[in-house]
Design a protein that fits this description.
It is built from 1 helix and 3 strands, in the order βββα. By secondary structure, the protein is of the alpha+beta class. It starts with 7 loop residues before the first strand and ends in an 8-residue tail after the last helix.
Length: about 90
Amino acid sequence: MTHVRTWTVQIAISEHEDERRTHADAILHGARMVRGEGQARRRPSDREVPEIGDELAAARALADLAYKLLDVAAGDIEQFTHRPVHLTS
């Protein structure tokens, strides 16, 4: 029998115009809640295109989330094997 689980990732993006910075939080709602963070910075000479900052910050937050989820999985495996585990993507 197939078991289907649904996990949801919520991404919150905030722009800090005065600092030329965009911050994103990617929050996984699943068996556990895991949070990743990412930022994008705009140089003074760059054109202002908010979508690019949003995309970069969100991508970096998702990448951070993926690595943190690997750490959670490694910790779970270690609980069963009683051995150190190092997982890579």
